[in-house]
Write a structure and sequence with these properties.
The protein is of the alpha+beta class and 341 residues long. Helices cover 29% and strands 26% of the residues. An 8-stranded antiparallel beta sheet has the order 2-3-7-8-11-14-15-16, with helices on one face. Strands 1-9-10-17 form a 4-stranded antiparallel beta sheet, with no helix packed on it.
């Protein structure tokens, strides 16, 4: 099975977006150009509303897909020869990397700092121990001693960045995993490319990680938040239009296995090495997908109270949190904008 840059490729029968792009009247607008490709281990769909030139819109979309593919192969640790692969396979060595890799790793460290360590890009070893991507029958948690050992070698203190020299090195046997931020970063870059090409109205949906700009014809873009326990059903909806905006959800319903009657999901708490508890899903609205991606994970790990405090402390960031009792909590800036179903 092809490994995902961010997550495993789900069987097509089980592939359901974290965010559901709701169909509204006029969805088949003749001015819409929609193209879909399999990238980053998920379905990536780009929709552009053109102003009379479909061929030009096709060209813009194709260039955006090329940028996504380029960055996927640069940043995915599963790609031999990628920047992250080289860092992980050359411990202690100053590895020359691209500007994009430096930007992304520094962003990861920033979100680690503001989230009290709840977002951590140095958990590659721990993530591999849990084998969530294997999707095998009879999976079980790794031994507790192995989890403790993986936590011991994680953390940003084991990472050295030389920005002027454009190198990154690791201490001990740290493995980077950018899965909680890379997909957002990549679709941000694709969106920037479209904006630079003067595309005024578009949406990029990468398996539920979304960025939108402008309008859907003469209407707002409407996105729906997936119900965390009812596949295919929408919990709430939100209209977006105008400036570039991102919506990203992290939920406990992807990459899940059961062992001895207990549910284990893929969002790990860096402090314990085990799946985070307290929430079923976190949706973040932000001005860029990189931030929304990282914060959706960080808030999920922090839990409802601490996570909501983090959201409220950040300008331009809002959130919708669903706890394990199915109670929905909405941040102050979204009150009155989220339509619960």
């Amino acid at each position: 099975m092809k490994k995902n840059l961010i997550k495993t490729v789900l069987p097509l029968t089980a592939l359901v977006f974290i965010l559901l792009f709701l169909s509204i009247k006029g969805d088949e607008d003749s001015n819409a150009v929609k193209r879909t490709r399999m990238l980053m281990g998920t379905i990536v769909e780009i929709t552009v509303f053109h102003e009379g030139n479909r061929d030009k819109s096709d060209e813009h979309i194709n260039e955006a897909f090329k940028e996504i593919k380029r960055l996927e192969e640069l940043l995915g640790r599963q790609y031999e020869g990628s920047d992250i692969w080289k860092i992980n396979n050359r411990p202690g060595e100053n590895v020359s990397v691209s500007e994009e890799t430096l930007d992304l790793v520094e962003a990861g460290l920033h979100f680690h700092a503001i989230s009290q360590g709840s977002f951590d890009i140095t958990l590659g070893k721990l993530i591999d121990l849990w084998r969530f991507k294997d999707e095998e029958e009879g999976q079980s948690p790794p031994p507790d001693d192995d989890i403790k050992a993986a936590i011991k070698i994680s953390g940003p203190q084991n990472l050295n960045i030389d920005r002027p020299g454009k190198t990154i090195s690791t201490i001990a046997d740290v493995h980077l995993d950018l899965g909680g931020i890379a997909k957002g970063f990549i679709i941000d870059r694709a969106g920037e490319l479209l904006a630079q090409r003067n595309v005024k109205n578009f949406i990029i949906d990468a398996g539920g990680d979304m960025i939108v700009k402008g309008k859907k014809g003469d209407k707002a873009w409407r996105v729906g938040l997936r119900h965390p326990r009812k596949p295919g059903e929408v919990l709430a909806s939100l209209d977006l239009n105008g400036d570039l905006t991102s919506i990203v959800t992290s939920g406990d319903y992807e990459q899940v296995f059961f062992h001895e009657g207990k549910r284990y999901h893929h969002i790990l708490d860096p402090s314990t090495g085990y799946p985070a508890k307290g929430l079923m899903s976190v949706t973040i609205k932000a001005g860029d997908a990189k931030s929304a991606d990282a914060l959706s994970t960080a808030v999920f790990v922090l839990g409802k109270e601490k996570g909501l405090r983090l959201i409220e402390s950040l300008n331009g960031v809002e959130g919708v949190l669903v706890d394990e009792d199915s109670k929905v909590t909405i941040s102050s800036g979204l009150k009155g904008q989220v339509l619960l179903r």
